[in-house]
Amino acid sequence: xxxxxxxxxxxxxxxxxxxxxxxxxxxxxxxxxxxxxxxxxxxxxxxxxxxxxxxxxxxxxxxxxxxxxxxxxxxxxxxxxxxxxxxxxxxxxxxxxxxxxxxxxxxxxxxxxxxxxxxxxxxxxxxxxxxxxxxxxxxxxxxxxxxxxxxxxxxxxxxxxxxxxxxxxxxxxxxxxxxxxxxxxxxxxxxxxxxxxxxxxxxxxxxxxxxxxxxxxxxxxxxxxxxxxxxxxxxxxxxxxxxxxxxxxxxxxxxxxxxxxxxxxxxxxxxxxxxxxxxxxxxxxxxx
Amino acid sequence: xxxxxxxxxxxxxxxxxxxxxxxxxxxxxxxxxxxxxxxxxxxxxxxxxxxxxxxxxxxxxxxxxxxxxxxxxxxxxxxxxxxxxxxxxxxxxxxxxxxxxxxxxxxxxxxxxxxxxxxxxxxxxxxxxxxxxxxxxxxxxxxxxxxxxxxxxxxxxxxxxxxxxxxxxxxxxxxxxxxxxxxxxxxxxxxxxxxxxxxxxxxxxxxxxxxxxxxxxxxxxxxxxxxxxxxxxxxxxxxxxxxxxxxxxxxxxxxxxxxxxxxxxxxxxxxxxxxxxxxxxxxxxxxxxxxxxxxxxxxxxxxxxxxxxxxxx
Lengths: 288, 313
What we know:
Chain A is about 75% helix and about 0% strand. In chain A, helix 1 packs antiparallel against helix 12, helix 5 crosses helix 7 and helix 10 packs antiparallel against helix 12.
């Protein structure tokens, strides 16, 4: 970041100075560091984990944290630290897979109904009202109940419910953007609807959606681990934070570290995404 | 009479929404692979039972007729029979409902008690250390899953210090207060984080508004400004927010009830899922939707009562 003198042409300087601004904010920097580390753990847990997460050792059951096992060992003598690190793979995957399909569907539907309005928009309004009438977790759980427990079904369930929130946001933003001159100009110039929606409106309307996406990734980890804890998400012996906490629950008075440590990983990752979201909101939102 | 018109319009909008809610719940069980009758009656059902259920649900009829049957049954309060409980779904739900409502109301009260004063302190000290501390703590709170908060409270306050029972439910009002304090606190710690953040922003917005600056310029005492203008407007935004987060609150109670073994609707939902008790799952999902929409409606009415601007738009 020292070679600002050699900065590329003017167009990027505005964006660059905003990036500098964001990086100078301690919150964003901390968030980016946490998520950066989390991605590293998720991609190559084997490098960071001291032991094999599934190695069972009946001679070292439920040992308290020590130099040898910093997070202790579980009821099968597996190394807790290694299991928490290996769980990053599943839990970070949740942040992506539980949100990205909802994002894609929601953005597309939201942009279309926001642009065309009419009957489709009216139906959309009722569908949104109906889906938000269910508590999020209740509807997700009900869908999981029908499909059966497991990670893939959990992703399907969250997508079935979650796209509504993206669509609602996108629709409102597209309608707001339609009021701008560039949108009318596109229509006057006879551009195709597809071009106006996807080349002109979408890039301008996407900012709040991206900011919400960061929050939603944090929520996805909370939701995914909650379902894992309840026995409806990832299934043991899969190392997943919610599952790990549930496994430790029975020994909570004697081996508290089993449940405590995975929870700290959840809190840290959630915090990381929220901080990035706040930073992005400042970075992307035009000032003035 | 603009107010009455608003209420009627609001009620009219609920009809299509509720029809869709019913369709979603109806389709939920129809999405199951295989015979819905078998799914509803369970594996141990006899052929006669299956035939009776097929008949009752009209499974041999077209889908629309099936939906009509489901719809009219629900309107008559008939949600079918629970496999798990061996009684009517409606009966089980009515039995468990008060516990969950108590828990939710208790949690709302606690979160207001926590978030209200702290939001005022944070907003009045904007940018200074009390603000920073309060916001940081609540930011961490927002990143905690409800079951984790519950387990921590359970371990330290109930199992370790033995100040509270580790689970179950009490008799009478005070007994319920005692037994449901920790479960409610668990939900409250999560919802108060949401309320605090929004309330703080709302208070700051009011403090910066021209009419408050005008009141200041007129020389009105601070107490009057805070009481008359800030509190009233903060109340409106808090009620709106509470109404909107009722879904979150219900999700929270569901998790809390399983952590603390509270015999409410949430734990029943989970038991129903593991027992594949589809009539009960359907009934509970519907109950949650009804609860939420009642709260949405009350929120809207309360809001239009407090804020005249709402009635005009």
